[in-house]
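The instructor's notes for this session suggest beginning with a concrete chain rather than abstract definitions. Hand out the sequence below and ask the class to guess, before any prediction is shown, which regions might be ordered.
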Amino acid sequence: MNFLADESCDFAVIHALRTNGYDVVAVSEVTPRAEDAEVIRLAVHEGRILLTEDKGFGRLVYSHGQKTLGVIFLRFPTFARKQISRDVLNLVKQHGDRLAGAFITVQPGRIRISHAP
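After discussion, reveal the predicted structure:
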């Protein structure tokens, strides 16, 4: 499973996934300050699921019909930041077969998997 981590994505998530053998490209390492639409196009072009903490991607997917291979949207408040990488890693390990083409919202203790229009 391959991922593209938006610049808003906590680097602890990138590190945890890479450490566990997942292919993760960080936007900050390849095309810093890219516009959101460009980030989605890059993810699709490279066959990657997008990791982000930017709710603007939800608007692009749902309001503007932007095609994706999947988006994992992370919503973790400051008090729960320590568990973000563990929760994402558990999501990928437990639900990896359901991530392609889905819009997944991950919050402390909660995962919502929906399919974009």
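Then share the key points. Residues 84-95 form the longest helix (12 residues). The radius of gyration is 13 Å.
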